[in-house]
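Allow me, if you will, to draw on your knowledge of protein folds for a short while. Thank you for your consideration; the sequence and its tokens are set out here:
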Amino acid sequence: MKATTKKVRIDDHITYNGQDVIRVFKKDYGIDQYISGYYGICKNASTSEACIFGGDSAWADCYDIDIMKSVYENWDGTLVHCGKYGYKIEL
């Protein structure tokens, strides 16, 4: 599912109130590693609340850096609104 609007910069993917599907600048996001060893795709220079994919210590795939790299490399910048969880990468 592709967003049809121009790209936007958002500060907070949870409180941002835009369309159901948006496009963001991919370079604003990167792969973060947490102290416990799991990974998430998050907004650069932000807290863990800005995680748009992964970042869940209970999800085994989040411990695999190769999965995170693959998701990030194949992601086109599209985010889908997921209710109270805000915008996320949809596979």
